[in-house]
Amino acid sequence: MSDETNPFESLQEQIDDAAAHLDVDDGAIERLKNPERVLETNLTVELDDGSLETVRAYRSQFNGDRGPYKGGIRYHPGVTRDEVKALSGWMVYKCATVDIPYGGGKGGISIDPTQYSEAELERITRAFATELRPLIGEDRDIPAPDVNTGQREMNWIKDTYETLENTTAPGVITGKAIDSGGSAGRVEATGRSTMLAAREVFDWIGEQVEGASVAVQGYGNAGWIAADLLDDVGATVVAVSDSGGGVHDPSGLDPVAVKEHKNETGSVVGYGDAEELTNEELLTLDVDLLVPAALENAIDADLAEDVRADVVVEAANGPLTPGADDVLAERDVWVVPDILANAGGVTVSYFEWVQNRQRFSWTEERVNEELERVITEAFDGLVDAYETHDLRNLRTAAYVVAVQRVIDASDQAGTWP
User: Fold this and answer.
1) Alpha-carbon torsion (391, 394, 395, 399), positive or negative
2) pLDDT of 295
3) ∠ CA 192-316-241 to the nearest 5 degrees?
4) Would you state the pLDDT for residue 2?
5) Pairing of strands 275-277, 245-248
6) Measuring CA to CA, which residue among 391, 379, 303 is closest to residue 1?
7) How far is residue 209's CA from residue 291's CA, in Å, rounded to a whole number?
8) In whole angstroms, what is the distance from residue 235 CA to residue 6 CA?
9) Helix (H, G, I), strand (E, B), or coil: what is residue 61?
10) Which of 8, 38, 55, 299 has the most Cβ atoms closer than 10 angstroms to its Cβ?
C-alpha cells in the first residue's frame, strides 16, 4: 500500500486525463483543479479531566458552479489539508457524474475518535460547528457524515447551528437520525450504490454478479452494507477485512454474522473458522469482484500488479493511485470509479436535503427506487463517454462527463466580476 501518494495530486492528474479529451481552455481547467477556499482552524476544548487540548480541523469548499458545496466530515488522525482538498474535489465531480445540483466540499478533524469520551467528542464537534457557522447553510454548504462520523455527530452540528442562528434549519446538514430530519435509506446508501454499480458493470461486460466471488477491504458502514447487499443479489462474499486484518472462507461468509462479530470484538479477525489474512493478501485474492472500502491509496502501482480480481468497484474515496489505474487498465481489469460507485451517499443526502426543504418525508422504497435510477443512468452515461471518446478506462470516462458538466455550468454563469 502507498502512504506517499498525495491524494490532491492524484485528483489533479485525474482531471488532466479527462481534459485531454475535451475542448477546453487551460485556464478553465486550472481553476477546476484547485479549491475556492479552505478553512484551517485550531479547536481548543476541555477534556473530561479538566485539561485543555488543541486539535486541527479543516473545511475545503472546492467548487460551487453547480450548486451549494456538499461533502462529509471525517474524524481520523490522518486528516490533512491536502487530503481534505482532494476529497472536496472528488465531491465536485462525483455530484456532476450522477448529475445532482451540488458543488463539492469536505471537512475533517485530525483526531483518533477512539481516544475520546462521548462527552469530549461532543465538545470537539460543537467547537468545529461553531467555526463552520459562517460557511455552512442550507443554500451555502451542507456537510454530512464520513469516516468515523455518523448520525450522532450530524445531530450535534445541526443543533449547534440552529441554536446559534436561532432558527430551524434541518437542511443545513444531512445524514441525520430519522427523528432529527434524516432520510430513510441514508445509512445504506453508499453500500447500495456500490452494489448497483457492480451489478451494472457485470451486466455490461456480459457477466452476472449472481455467483460472483467478492472480497471487501474495509468493513465500516460502506463495506459491510455493500457485502450484505451483494450477498442478497446472489454473490458470494469470500473475504472481508478491517484495520486489524481480514478473514477468508472460499465457501462464503455471512456478512451480517461477521458484522455482529466485529461489533462484539472490535474486529472481523477471529470470526468462526475462517482463515485469517492481511489486508494486502485480501487485495490480491483471486476473486471476480474486489471492493476497496477503506481509505485512499490502498492500492498503488506495485500492488496493482498482483491484483487478481476481474472487476474493482471503489466504495472508498481514492483507493487506487493513478499508477494503479494505469496498471489495471493495461491488464484489462475493469474499475468502476469512486465518483460513481460510492455516490449513493451524496445522492441520498441530496434526497434528504430535498425532503428537509419541502418538510415532507419519502418512504424508503421511494428513496431506493430513485437511487437506483440515478446510479443506472449515470453508469449508462459513463459507458457512452467511454465508447464515444475511445478512452482507456471508466474513470477517465466519468471525469470527462463530470468535468464537462462543471465547465458548462461555469460558462452559463459567466465570469464575475
Assistant:
1) positive
2) 82
3) 90
4) 46
5) antiparallel
6) 303
7) 13
8) 34
9) strand
10) 299
pLDDT beyond 50 at 1: no
Q: Does the active-site annotation cover 106?
A: yes
Instruction: Tell me what the mean pLDDT of segment 187-208 comes to.
Output: 97
Instruction: Give the per-residue pLDDT at 3.
Output: 53
Measured distance CA(116)–CA(111) in Å, rounded: 9
Closest-CA residue to 338 (of 63, 67, 86): 86
* Segment 3-62, tens digit of pLDDT: 578 989 999 999 999 999 999 988 899 999 999 999 999 999 999 999 999 999 999 999
Nearest Cα neighbor of 190 from 216, 157, 159 is 216
pTM strictly above 0.85: yes
Compute the distance between CA of residue 315 and CA of residue 147 in angstroms, rounded to an integer. 12
**Which three three-digit cell numbers place residue 290?**
474486489
Q: 277-289 b/e with 16+ CB inside 10 Å = b?
A: bebebbbbbebbb
Q: Give strand pairing partners of 143.
A: 71
Percentage of the residues of the chain whose pLDDT score is greater than 70: 99
- Which one of 106, 158, 176, 259 is the catalytic residue? 106
Query: CA-CA distance, 417 to 150, in Å (whole number)?
Result: 39
User: Which of the 8 DSSP states describes residue 148?
Assistant: T
Q: At residue 286, does pLDDT exceed 80?
A: yes
The number of residues in the chain equals 417
Cell of 91: 465531491
